[in-house]
Amino acid sequence: MSLQDLLDFNQKFVEDKSYEAYRTDVYPNKKMVIFTCMESRLLELLHRALNLENGDAKIVKNAGAIIRKPFDSIVKSILVAVYNLKADEVIVIGHHDCGMSNVDVDALKQRMLDRGISEERLNTLEYSGIDLDEEFHGFTEVENSVTQSTEIIRNHPLLPEGIKVHGLVIDPHTGKVDVVTRDGE
Ligand SMILES: [Zn+2]
């Protein structure tokens, strides 16, 4: 698989007007913004398991569905979805068996060194306040991580009244979802 395969497929996709089945507008039909992990096993499974069609929700992703700072790019995306795109419900979805659980940061740093990043460069970053342990450590329990991310959104100084924020965990094998924390209906 390479970029060329994607481009070849794309040409045919457009020629065949396959896009017609996916037409929708920019506003999420279900007024939701979903924040989840970049996990490739969830690429289609998450949508199928929750009955989400094209156009139903704004989707924001990062490694681990992790928010630890109130003004990171994820939170900004969520706020844009709320203020500009009429989303009134935010759902954080972590998953079991996540690559960001129990990340071995020392092993990660070693991989960086092995790939040609110099020790000096790592040190320079640390001196300038980039704490790689803090940036990459991930989490131990996915439920706790989802709760943390959810709380940062709920308590955000720029989140308006009336926005529900929920936290879920999904099984990447079966698609089964468990509720970690739920705002009142
Ligand atoms: Zn993950």
Could you provide a short overview of the structure?
This protein has 7 helices and 5 strands, in the order H-E-H-E-H-E-H-H-H-H-E-E. The chain is of the alpha/beta class and 185 residues long. It has a 5-stranded mixed sheet, covered by helices on one side.
Question: Can you describe this structure?
Answer:
The chain is of the alpha/beta class. The chain has 2 domains: 24-99 and 140-185, Carbonic anhydrase (Beta-carbonic Anhydrase, Chain A); 103-137, no CATH class. Helices cover 37% and strands 17% of the residues. The chain is built from 7 helices and 5 strands. The chain has helices at 3-15, 45-49, 73-85, 105-114, 119-127, 132-136, 142-154; strands spanning 32-37, 57-62, 89-95, 164-170, 177-181. It has a 5-stranded mixed β-sheet, covered by helices on one side. It is globular, with a radius of gyration of 19 Å. The termini are far apart. The model has no long low-confidence stretch (mean pLDDT 96). Zinc ion binds at residues 37, 39, 64, 95, 98-100.
Q: Can you tell me the residue ranges where pLDDT is under 50 for at least 5 consecutive residues?
A: none
Residue fraction in strands: 15-25%
**How much is the radius of gyration in Å?**
19 Å
**CATH architecture descriptor of the largest domain:** 3-Layer(aba) Sandwich
Order of helices and strands: HEHEHEHHHHEE
Strand order in the sheet with the most strands: 2-1-3-4-5
Bound molecules: zinc ion
User: How many domains would you count in the coordinates?
Assistant: 2
Q: How many strands, what sense, and barrel or not for the largest sheet? A: 5 strands, mixed
Overall pLDDT level? 96
The CATH superfamily of the largest domain is identified as Carbonic anhydrase
